[in-house]
Structures are given as structure tokens and as C-alpha cells.
Amino acid sequence: MSTKIDETTTPAGATPADLGIGMRFSIHPHTDGFVEVILGALADAEAAGLTDGLVIETDEVSTYVGARTAPAEQRLAAYLSAVVAAASLRSGGGHVVAHVLLSRGCPGEVACDLTVTGLPSPAPVAIEPTGIHAAAHWSLYPLLDGGSDAGDHMAHIEGAIAAATARGTAASPAHYATKLTGDVADVLATAVDAWAQVGARVPHVVTHLTLSVGSPSPATN
């Protein structure tokens, strides 16, 4: 699976390198052959050309993926969708869980400047459907509000949930999270687009997902 990156649509303003745009994720296939599944899924995404423009570093806990050039959000979403889908296919449709943390605004990076101006408004991501159903618990954290709505972080969160509801991926509220359901690509695009659009107004934004495919637990809604 591949998703073509259009490098001609670079937004004006701060660059992804300025903002420290990236993610950490870990993927957990519930199978005895988890090593082969994980390594194979990562290799599949690389073979599809989806590592271009990304900095990838893996340790014993998780994998860091940094996007230094635009379209950063598209690169991250397409790569992650491909890895999750490949892990599901390589595990024969078994249970696969991914924990994902996306950050923009640079705390946690080597250098950080929250006074950066010209926050970009990225275009919505476009990810090829995977044909794999997913459920996720999703949380969004605007960590530094600015402008006329300074301090009103709930307005950003409620707006993101409303957008997810209109998109058809927001299934229900959950404790400390919103449940998303749909194709892996749609679920990830929902979270990434909300994170990016809030980031057009708030210098530091984090979003977290626990994504599950092939779960043996019955869906509750």
C-alpha cells in the first residue's frame, strides 16, 4: 500500500522542523510470531516508500518518527496506517494494538521555542483505505492556548470531537477519551487532522490514541 506525498503543497509559516512535529508509537501483535510481524510491517512501510522525509529511531520501548518537512502530517499518518495494516495482515487478522503519541510544539525535542509564529494550517490528510476495521480511544491535549481564547482548551477539544462526529468516526464518549471506529485510515486521519488543525491556533498540541484491530472483545457501540 502506498499514498503519494504531494510535496508542492507546503504551507506558509513555521516549518515542521521549527515546530518539532513527530510521534512515538509502539505496536503489539498478539501472536507468538510478534517479532516477525513487527519487523515485517516496518519493512513493508519502508518498501512502499513511506519512510521518505521521516527520521525514524527505535529503542526497546517505542519508535520515534520525526517529520522534518511538509506535508508532515500526511507523512506521519500514511506511514502509521501502513504499519498497522501490515501488522494486521501479517498476523492473519489477529489482535493488534498500537499506542500512538503525536506532538507538535517541540517540548521533548532537543530545542524548543514556543514563541514561534506563523503556525501553518495543513491540508487534511488523505490516506488510502486499508479495508481493516479499527477502534480507538482518542484524547487531545491543547497544552498552550493563545489568542483571544487563551485558556479555553475545552473549546478546541469540543470542536475536534464535533468534527469527528460529523466525519462519522466518533462512536461515543468514554472515560478520559473519545471512542473512534472505522477503517484504520479513517480513524488515524480523524485524530491527525484534529491535532493539526488545533495546532494552527495553539503552539503546543499533543494527541494520544490506543488503536485496536482484530480485538476478541465484542464492540459495545
From TrEMBL:
<dbReference type="InterPro" id="IPR029756">
    <property type="entry name" value="MTH1187/YkoF-like"/>
</dbReference>
<feature type="domain" description="Thiamin/hydroxymethyl pyrimidine-binding YkoF putative">
    <location>
        <begin position="134"/>
        <end position="217"/>
    </location>
</feature>
<dbReference type="InterPro" id="IPR011522">
    <property type="entry name" value="Thiamin/HMP-bd_put_YkoF"/>
</dbReference>
<protein>
    <submittedName>
        <fullName>YkoF family thiamine/hydroxymethylpyrimidine-binding protein</fullName>
    </submittedName>
</protein>
<dbReference type="Pfam" id="PF07615">
    <property type="entry name" value="Ykof"/>
</dbReference>
